[in-house]
Design brief:
By secondary structure, the chain is α/β, with parallel strands linked by helices. It is built from 22 helices and 17 strands. The structure holds iron/sulfur cluster (2 copies).
Length: about 675
């Protein structure tokens, strides 16, 4: 007379689970955990209510099917008794005559088919006695196995309040063994999944859904069998047992009493609430008639989608017909005949409660999922828990994951998208820089070759043209030509010098300088027209930096010169220094004409210039770029050449690492 070993009753079909958390939300005992992106049942916590199998729209939660074991029993034993739950009229509505249904079950090979409802008749008498003897201590009905598991696992302190009575199924198993022999094998057929683990006094339990498949598998229909009545002992009002309040009606407990100290609750939200009320009531506790489902007629072993009202109606119709036709004397005799059978049932504590986490642990998790104040607690329920706090508790207990919090995951996703965008931008700019470097490298090689070849002949031309110029009389017409040759040769030398500068395989010779003094020095070396103002701003916290002073001076003077040339109508050149722990930034802004959008992408291309013929070599900015890169820094340009879009001008931002050797 004890519960059977708690088998694993419910499973997840992994490739069907879409991780929607519906089953987590609807599991009354939070026995479902997200493991590796799948909602898996934790067997030790599961009470077998089967609710998750009903609510999962993907068919990813399935319960244990055992018709093959029933097949074995039928093949190996002669005395096999099917005991059928009284909710069968709610499931097999298409079979008008219940005798046809009984005939179909018998056709599977059972020697007898009996009604669990007679067990309910017997148990109801015991409940009546309990109720009559009640001294305000209250009891919790024990006919629903999921409720019994719930109390045993999660409210073990209430074990003594569980009615010490067998369920109608177990009662009927004891009765049919008494009647047909203790060697009989008993198979329960009903709407319930938890029955499969309720008691080892029943050899197997299958659901009505399994029975339907079994009929199909064996080719049994209501047309190819012989209708037969249930085998005795036959039930009376116990047949109304599966609908809510069925026990009360079966036990003939009046509605007056019912409204005062009996709480009837079915469905997982209601039964757990009723248990909480019971637990917190000290005196005159109510009696609880609890069902985990919304009545056994809505059990997980019934076909999905049936309407409760219609099912209730089908059971009531069957019971009415039955009571009209039943032989009351025979029923009464059977009740007396089996009243000596012990219908007691022990219940055992099997505490599965988890330790409550500390406030610190809960707060830490709440912070981890971005809940820092009450207003961050959206309590949206998307995670499957009623509140953010409950979710945090479940995370600490190892039942849930941070990612189940939808707002948190969305936030993380946004963050990832932003990070990806940043990476893309960096990648694009690195690619651009790489292209530029390659271009500069090949231009450099070419330039170096040409410059070396031109340098010597240019030197010869310069020397001989100067000699000729010195030898020519001051008023000779050829002197003007010679002046032009000397001037243009000097210009060619300047270009070649620029080319060599650009092409040389530079190494940086670092020395430590005070950048404030250094930049001020650079300003002194440019020719500044009167219509140009120079502003110098330093926001440096530490002006000391390691640079190649010759090269960076070249960078600054180049940019300053360009800025002055861009402001032919006058303007302001602003030099602003900023820094952080690792980098120093030199910002050079002019209020000049700006660089047009079309020209922006070519500014670092060697020999590209917008200056007039003879005014620029197009090597200044590529040189700037090369030097800054050699310092492991970067150059950014912001420019506007369109006065309709705002003030025109250009800003060069040169960022240099404070100590390039660390890079
Ligand atoms: S209800 Fe549960 S098992 Fe079904 S898809 Fe959602 S998370 Fe997966
Ligand atoms: S059968 Fe019930 S208790 Fe078990 S996991 Fe599913 S909903 Fe939870």
């Amino acid at each position: 007379m004890s519960h059977s070993i708690h088998k694993q009753l419910v499973f997840t079909v992994k490739d069907r689970c879409r991780v929607c958390y519906t089953c987590v939300r609807e599991c009354p005992v939070k026995a479902i955990k997200i493991i590796n992106g799948q909602a898996e049942v934790i067997n030790e916590r599961c009470i077998g209510c089967g609710n998750c199998t009903i609510v999962c729209s993907q068919g990813a939660k399935v319960y244990l099917k055992t018709t093959d074991l029933v097949d074995d029993i039928l093949a190996t034993h002669k005395k096999t008794i099917a005991i059928v739950a009284p909710s069968f009229p709610a499931e097999f509505t298409e079979i008008e005559d219940h005798k046809k249904f009984v005939g179909m079950v018998k056709a599977l090979g059972f020697s007898h088919v009996c009604e669990v409802a007679f067990g309910a008749d017997m148990v109801a008498r015991e409940y009546k006695k309990l109720h009559d003897d009640d001294k305000g201590e209250g009891y919790i009905s024990s006919d629903c196995p999921a409720i019994v598991f719930y109390i045993e696992h999660y409210h073990p302190n209430l074990i003594q309040s569980l009615a010490p009575l067998a369920s109608p199924m177990v009662a009927m198993a004891r009765i049919v063994k008494e009647k047909y022999g203790h060697d009989a094998k008993i198979v329960f057929i009903g709407p319930c999944v938890a029955k499969k683990a309720e008691s080892n006094e029943v050899d197997e339990a299958i659901t009505f859904n399994e029975l339907r498949d079994y009929f199909t598998q064996k080719g049994i229909t209501s047309e190819n069998i012989t209708p037969v009545p249930f085998d005795p002992p036959r039930a009376g009002k116990g047949s109304i047992f599966p609908v809510s309040r069925g026990l009360l009606q079966t036990a003939d407990i009046s509605e007056d009493i019912l409204s005062e100290n009996i709480i009837v609750a079915s469905g997982h939200h209601k039964f757990s609430e009723a248990v909480s009320v019971f637990e917190s009531t000290d005196d005159n506790k109510p009696n609880l008639e609890l069902l985990c489902c919304k009545g056994c007629i809505m059990g997980p072993g019934m076909s999905h989608g049936g309407k409760r009202y219609n099912r209730r109606k089908s059971v009531s119709y069957f019971v009415k017909q039955k009571l009209d036709e039943m032989n009351m004397d025979e029923w009464q005799k059977d009740i007396e005949k089996y009243s000596h059978i012990n219908l007691a049932q022990e219940h055992n504590e099997q505490d599965r409660r988890l330790a409550a986490p500390s406030e610190e642990e809960i707060t830490k998790v709440l912070h981890d999922i971005g809940k820092f104040s009450e207003k961050d607690h959206l309590n949206c329920g998307a995670c499957g828990y009623a509140s953010c706090r409950e979710h945090a508790v479940a995370i600490v207990q190892g039942l849930a994951e941070h990612e189940m919090c939808l707002p948190f995951t969305i936030e993380k996703l946004h963050q990832s998208v932003n990070d990806l965008n940043d990476s893309n931008t960096k990648l694009a700019s690195t690619r651009q820089a790489l292209k530029q470097s390659e271009k500069l490298a090949s231009m450099g090689q070419l330039s170096a070759g040409i410059a070396h070849e031109l340098n010597n002949p240019l030197g010869v031309i310069t020397m001989y043209s100067n000699i000729l110029k010195d030898e020519a009389p001051a008023d000779a017409p050829i002197r003007q030509d010679l002046d032009l040759i000397v001037e243009q040769t000097a210009r060619c030398k300047q270009i070649v010098g620029g080319l060599l500068n650009f092409a040389r395989k530079n190494q940086v010779n670092l020395s430590q300088v005070n950048l404030i003094d250094f930049v001020k020095e650079s300003i002194k070396s440019i020719l500044k027209p009167d219509n140009i103002t120079i502003d110098f701003i330093s926001e440096l916290t530490n002006p000391i930096i390691n640079i190649d002073t010759d090269q960076i001076m070249q960078v600054l003077t180049n940019l300053e010169k360009n800025a002055v040339e861009a402001m032919s109508e006058g303007g302001t050149l602003t030099l602003k220094l900023t820094d952080d722990e690792n980098n120093i930034c030199i910002n050079l802004s002019d209020t000049g004409t700006g660089i047009s959008k079309e020209n922006m992408e070519f500014v670092f291309t060697p020999f590209f210039t917008t200056k007039g013929i003879g005014k620029g070599t197009g090597l200044g900015l590529p040189l700037v770029y090369g030097i800054v890169k050699m310092h492991k820094g970067k150059v950014d340009i912001i420019s506007n050449a369109d006065a309709t879009q705002g003030p025109t001008g250009t800003t060069f931002k040169i960022s240099l690492p404070r100590n390039i050797e660390e890079y």
